[in-house]
Amino acid sequence: MQLEILDAEGKLARRFASNDKLRKTDPKDVQFTIHWVRDPQPLSAEAGMHRFVWDLRYPLPQSVHASYWGPAGPLAAPGSYILRLTANGKSSAQPLTIKMDPRVKTPQAAWCGSLI
Questions:
Q1: Among 60, 7, 16, 61, residue whose Cα is nearest residue 40
Q2: Contact (Cβ atoms closer than 8 angstroms) between residue 80 and residue 95
Q3: CA atoms in the 13 A half-sphere facing the CB of 98
Q4: Number of folded domains that form the chain
Q5: Which DSSP letter does residue 52 get?
Q6: In this predicted model, what pLDDT tens digit does every residue of 45-102 receive, in sequence order?
Q7: Residues 86, 2 contacting (CB under 8 angstroms)
Q8: DSSP bridge pairs for 6
Q9: Stated pTM of the model
Q10: For residue 14, what are the domain limits?
Q11: Rounded CA gap, 2 and 56, in Å?
C-alpha cells in the first residue's frame, strides 16, 4: 500500500508506503527519557479505516542524516495537492488544500521565495 502526495503540477511531493524502512530514535540522541519520543509510524496495509498524519514536509535528500533534532525537509507551501492511495493495485485520489495559518501576517511571497 502506498500514499502519494502530488503538488498542483502533478509532481510527487511525498510518498509513504507500508513497507517503508523508518528510522528509530537513538536514546543517546535525546536528553530526556525516550518514553516521550514518538517515532514515525508506517502506513498500515491492514484492511479497515486508519488515520495517517503527514507532517507537511517534503522529504530530505537521501544523503542527509536526520536525527530527532533535525534537520527536516522543507515545508509544503499553501496550495492545492492531490492525495493518491494505492492498495491491491487499485488507486483512489482525493484533493487536498493546504491553507496558510491565519495567525501568520507575513506575506506568502516573502517566505515562499526562500523555499525555492
A1: 16
A2: yes
A3: 19
A4: 1
A5: -
A6: 888 888 888 989 998 887 777 666 677 888 898 899 999 999 989 999 999 999 988 8
A7: yes
A8: 12, 82
A9: 0.75
A10: 2-115
A11: 17
